[in-house]
Amino acid sequence: MILSVVIPAHNGQDFLKKCIHSLLSQDLDSTQYEIIVVNDGSTDQTVATVESISKEFSNVRLFTQENRGEGGARNTGLKIAQGEYILFVDHDDYVIPGSLHQLLSIAKNKNLDILMADFYNQNKDEKPVKNHKYIHNSSEIMSGREFMEKNSISWNPWVYLFRKDFLKENSILFKENMGFVDTEFCLKNLFFAKKVSYTPIFFYTWVWHSNSMSHGRWSEKKIADAMNGLIGISSFAQYIKEDGDSSHSIFQKHINAKCYGLIKNSTAVSYIATKEVCRFIRSDFIEANKLNATNVHFKVMINLIRLNISVGALVIFITGNVLRILK
Asked: Which terminus has fewer CB within 10 Å in the chain: N or C?
């Protein structure tokens, strides 16, 4: 079997039919690939939806577990996957018909550990729009570290096609029972990959809606998960720095971006949340001299936090909400 598609599904009844049928509309024989849906403690009609499809299509497999988060569901799918390559797909997104055969051909012909492809953004019921962030990436075969230095990379695991044996050899799994686990998983796997390439094939559609993890309303739980995710990336960056690897600077750029986004998003929750984030950023990153901001707005934030956490958080909170209202 050449491919295993892993779909973590938590209360996905409204999206799963479109997602699964997009995967069934591929230029692949059904014996060549499997679609693994991991029901992660759903309380809606997710199970019934998948079971009705699996009765008709034998390569659609359903597994049910107690809720362990998106990362836990992906880990389960990876553990039982039989394919040579792994593709992660979110239950509220969909894949372009006939596109997977192209990606698999490239990955096999180049003997890649990881192939990065491209995607569309779709806001609710609007027409999908091509993402233009990665179109200048090189399609040369590189080591993962060189790829991260020369190309723009994504924090979303579904933009990559992974060789299963590579994932198992490095034993890098998603963290479970928390959100914001994608960045650490992607960065670590790219770091260890020996052969990585990019192709400008737009094969995936990322659907934006109000309940999604990345675009949904922020909460104290999401803030806590994002902080834990930052700690994981930072710890690994420090590990490779102490080991004398210059790639830690690549991780630092992503840490900067994550810190900036975390501070901005905390203003949508409460002043208390913003203050807690500012305290976290100062104690774990600013005082440890890990932040090197280039964004002017971010520099102002850092200086405010450095001077006084309470006052800085208040200014950031008020400014963030004023800008949100003006938009």
From this structure: C
Q: What is the pLDDT of residues 26-50, one digit of tens each?
A: 999 999 999 999 999 999 999 999 9
Contact of 263 with 301, CB cutoff 8 Å:
yes
Six-digit token string for 75: 């880990």
Condensed to tens digits (0 to 9), the pLDDT of residues 225-270 reads 999 999 998 888 888 877 677 777 788 888 888 999 999 999 999 9
Where b means 16+ CB within 10 Å and e means fewer, 260-293 reads: bebbbbbbbbebebbbbbbebbbebbbeeebbeb
Q: Give the CB-side neighbour count of residue 302, counting CA atoms within 13 A.
A: 21
- pLDDT at residue 219 above 70? yes
Q: Residue 280: CB partners within 8 Å, gap ≥ 6?
A: 227
The DSSP result for 224-264, as a single string, is HHHHHHHHHHHHHHHHHHHTT-TTHHHHHHHHHHHHHHHHH
Cβ contact 75:174 at 8 Å: yes
For residue 16, what pLDDT is reported?
97
